[in-house]
Description:
The chain is of the alpha/beta class. The protein is 26% helix and 25% strand.
Amino acid sequence: MKDDARGAEREAMVREQVEARGVRDPRVLGALRSVPRHLFAPAGSEADRAAYEDRAHSIGEGQTISQPFIVARMTELLRLRGDEKVLEVGAGSGYQTAVLSLLAREVVAVERLPVLAGRARAVLDAFGARNVRMFVGDGSAGWLDEAPYDAALIAAAAPEVPAALVRQIHPGGRVVLPVGPEDGVQRLLLVTVNGDGSGRTHVEDYGEVSFVPLIGTRGYGLPADLGEPDL
């Protein structure tokens, strides 16, 4: 996909909202410069028109596309080198998925809402993200069929760190996710799995965030109709 129509907005977003706030990984900054964020929003919507503003936007179905800085921050915390297999839970619009696709060897993306998964898959295909596989289902406990993973990113707030998901991560791997109540202050956590094979973890807190709740068996309630098993 080649789309430079809003390249100046994208460059200003990276420079003023992301780099200026402390994100330094050049690979992450390069990925954000390369992904046309507005194309992952419904055409003509507020999320499309204001895609490069410093805020989250509704993409329908009660879901959002995260603030650019948060996308960059969460991605940077994973410290991806390019050879990893990454699990993403809550693919939503597919924007975060596209960013990860430029930084990892393989991305396994899970989205519980078929309409969002289908829309994201179409835009990802147009973008050229050939290393992404999209599944429709409950990812709150990870995605065991494709495990293990080197890293995972959960783009919705869990009531606690999902132990079942962490068990799907290689020793030395990382999980970044928001944890907290459905409405209220949530914390952005980085969970690092010890490299000694013990299964123990180290948790770091990176401050307050605000996300939609993680819906599923290990989240807030059971998922709605999950549609077809994959796309």
